[in-house]
Design goal:
This protein is of the alpha/beta class. It has 9 helices and 12 strands. About 25% of the residues are buried. The model has no long low-confidence stretch (mean pLDDT about 85).
Length: about 300
């Protein structure tokens, strides 16, 4: 890593020249176009050096943490499995402290990626790779807000996997009191305000990428993860119902949820918030009235209680 401004300025061009020479020696023709500074540390001189060398700065989005003391190949694999998201740029090491962990873990990590529908690609070919734009700021801020609220409300991604489209929190049913139709003979559960329940929220960033059809397809799988969470997470074991208050009622009806009206004041508040979210993620304002989508615990587990993939 360069220790002075002149070294930081020269580092991008020198690195590109050395890598380009190796590429040509093995018969390659791909030009070097990207540069990641050592440790991801940028300075004004680093940026000037990148510009002078015709390079674009690149960074990671997911730290593998293979260098941590006590890390193991299985621990690395479990960490990446939980933290992986679409479009992730994972930083791992094949030298130094991380090498003892990453090298033996890599076959299993690649198998996990393939099993979940991911494919490895070069950074230059990664879909969506581009410079930051002002329009990227609102979804970034919403993502930060989501993570903050999740921490405060004990909300976790379904199955503990960050690429799940659903996030689940233990809560109290907000009401109004209602009797669910249910699938059991003789009718369903009478659900009263204040009883333990599980509330799920959308991963708004992923849902905006998937669209309605993709959301339905992925949500079916993620509801199986929620079913496993109802039995795995101690704070969800007493939940009498699984519910959501949202403006995506048609999607949730297709997934088997009952729909009930919300109090007018609650509906207006949720509609304002839904429009804030949609604008932040570049979508049109919703015209749907927010509703309560709910299933009893018994009916939810009957529908989605298969082992998650």
């Amino acid at each position: 890593m360069a220790e002075n401004p002149w070294g930081a300025y020269r580092d991008p061009g020198d690195a590109a020249a050395r890598i380009g020479a190796v590429v040509r020696q093995v018969g390659g023709t791909q030009p070097v176009t990207l540069h990641r500074p050592p440790h991801g540390a940028y300075s004004l001189f680093t940026r000037l050096g990148q510009q002078a060398a015709g390079l674009t700065g690149a960074h990671w989005s997911l730290e593998g943490q293979d260098w941590r003391a006590g890390q193991t190949p299985d621990g690395l694999r479990a960490h990446l499995r939980r933290a992986l998201q679409p479009g992730a740029v994972i930083v791992l090491h094949d030298a130094g402290p991380g090498a003892r962990v990453t090298v033996p873990a890599l076959p299993g990590v690649l198998a996990d990626l393939k099993a979940r529908g991911y494919a490895a690609t070069s950074l230059a070919r990664l879909e969506g790779l581009r410079a930051e734009r002002p329009a990227d700021l609102p979804p970034r801020l919403m993502g930060v807000l989501d993570r903050l609220l999740d921490r405060l409300t004990r909300t976790e991604p379904a199955g503990g996997l960050r690429d799940s489209i659903l996030r689940v929190a233990p809560t109290r049913f907000p009401g109004p009191d209602l009797t669910l139709r249910g699938a059991a003979p003789g009718g369903g559960l009478t659900l009263r305000a204040g009883v333990p329940a599980a509330e799920y929220h959308a991963n708004n960033a992923l849902m905006s990428q998937l669209g309605p059809v993709g959301t339905v397809r992925v949500a079916r799988q993620d509801f199986r993860r929620v079913a496993a969470d109802l039995q795995r997470r101690p704070e969800l074991r007493g939940a009498q119902a699984v519910y959501c208050q949202s403006a995506v009622t048609p999607i949730l009806e297709r997934l088997g949820f009952e729909t009930h009206d919300l109090p007018p004041a609650t509906g207006r508040r949720l509609r304002v918030w839904a429009n804030v979210l949609r604008r932040a993620y570049g979508a049109r304002a919703t015209t749907q009235e927010p509703k309560l989508s709910v299933l009893s615990r018994e009916d939810f587990l009957r529908r989605y209680g298969e082992a998650p993939r």
